[in-house]
């Protein structure tokens, strides 16, 4: 190659941005509770730790939720989350901390303000959200357990701290709340010299572009990742349409895009009397409700995310197996047929192989 062409080739290579790191893993917020309820996870008949098992299969990201003051449970509190983060870091996993900003589930149907904040003015709620976010991150920093990623809100389709799916969003208020959380993350990252990326999270791909257009117009622009929940049961979109949204969001907003929640059943069987949430009635026709169907769904979904410019896939609640513990929904689990472990012996399933893509 002539010297001039060699120099041009070097310049072209330098100008090409490196592909973003691929993050594959799962939300293990239930693991501590399941183990306290007697669950024993296995692979090849041997007892395994779900965190180290995920790492062994190529996983590199663990997500965990945090509630403000959940008086109805001792899980997803600060102390429980700290335990989970310690386990993840010890296994060599990076951590995504998911602030629900609620004492209970916040999701695409509802955003329930913590009881301590419910009657505050907007100004005081903005301050409370900021200060709480900063306090939690400062406490984690003191323990040497800061996450690499932070979700400012969980499935924030409705207005934060009190919105419902059918309610109209007051974007002046909503933007102030979101930006307060983002500011707290940025401040903590600077104060502790620990980079943390911010994710904003919307349920179901058909809601993504409209929400982020409104957010942008309201001044919500300081984030790094768009997180999308995708469950075929609750979405109007098939996988091809999901791919188009990922590509459009990545191009339109310049952010990374992850499918930060998804799951798929491997059987219609059950291990308890609590009805399963996912089953054949909500499955995609090309993926049978079998062990291999579940595994192929996750492999194809991951390939689709990457092909459309995304760089993250996080499975929801693979650890939510059936035990003898009682919850508000009944005894056992309504998710055991969509976990990563079989129903009878909690033996690891082939679905985990999608995480091997981090090695390619």
Automatic annotation (TrEMBL):
It catalyses: The enzyme specifically hydrolyzes (1->4)-beta-D-galactosidic linkages in type I arabinogalactans. The keyword Hydrolase applies. Residues 1-18 form the signal peptide. Keywords: Glycosidase, Hydrolase, Plasmid, Signal. Gene3D superfamilies: Glycosidases. SUPFAM superfamilies: (Trans)glycosidases. It holds the Pfam family Glyco_hydro_53. One of its GO terms (molecular function) is hydrolase activity. It comes from the Bacteria. Its EC number is 3.2.1.89. Belongs to the glycosyl hydrolase 53 family. This is Arabinogalactan endo-beta-1,4-galactanase. It comes from Novosphingobium humi. The lineage of its organism: Bacteria, Pseudomonadati, Pseudomonadota, Alphaproteobacteria, Sphingomonadales.
């Amino acid at each position: 190659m002539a010297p001039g062409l060699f120099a041009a080739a070097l310049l072209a290579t330098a100008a090409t941005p490196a592909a973003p790191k691929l993050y594959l893993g799962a939300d293990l917020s239930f693991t501590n509770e399941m183990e306290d309820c007697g669950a024993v996870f296995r692979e090849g008949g041997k007892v395994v730790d779900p965190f180290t098992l995920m790492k062994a299969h190529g996983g590199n990201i663990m997500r965990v939720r945090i509630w403000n003051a959940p008086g109805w449970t001792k899980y997803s509190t600060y102390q429980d989350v700290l335990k989970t983060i310690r386990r993840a870091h010890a296994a060599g996993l990076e951590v995504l901390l998911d602030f629900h900003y609620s004492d209970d589930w916040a999701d695409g149907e509802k955003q329930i303000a913590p009881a301590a904040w419910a009657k505050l003015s907007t100004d005081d709620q903005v301050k409370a959200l900021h200060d709480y976010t900063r306090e939690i991150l400062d406490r984690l920093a003191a323990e040497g357990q800061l996450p690499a990623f932070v979700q400012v809100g969980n499935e924030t389709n409705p207005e934060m701290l009190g919105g419902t799916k059918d309610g109209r969003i007051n974007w002046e208020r909503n933007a102030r709340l979101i930006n307060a959380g983002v500011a707290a993350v940025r401040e903590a990252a600077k104060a502790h010299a620990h980079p943390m990326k911010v994710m904003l999270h919307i349920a179901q791909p058909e809601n993504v572009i409209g929400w982020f257009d409104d957010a942008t117009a309201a001044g919500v622009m300081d984030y790094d990742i768009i997180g999308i929940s995708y469950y075929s049961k609750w979405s109007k979109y098939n996988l091809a349409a999901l791919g188009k949204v990922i590509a459009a969001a990545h191009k339109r907003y310049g952010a990374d895009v992850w499918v930060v929640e998804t799951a798929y059943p491997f059987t219609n069987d059950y291990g308890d009397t609590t009805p399963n949430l996912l089953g054949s009635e909500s499955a995609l026709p090309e993926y049978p409700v079998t062990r291999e169907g579940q595994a192929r769904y996750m492999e194809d979904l991951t390939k689709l995310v990457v092909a459309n410019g995304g760089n993250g896939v996080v499975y929801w609640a693979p650890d939510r197996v059936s035990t003898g513990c009682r919850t508000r929904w009944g005894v056992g689990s309504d998710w055991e047929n969509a976990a990563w472990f079989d129903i009878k012996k909690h033996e690891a399933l082939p679905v985990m192989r999608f995480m091997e893509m981090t090695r390619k």
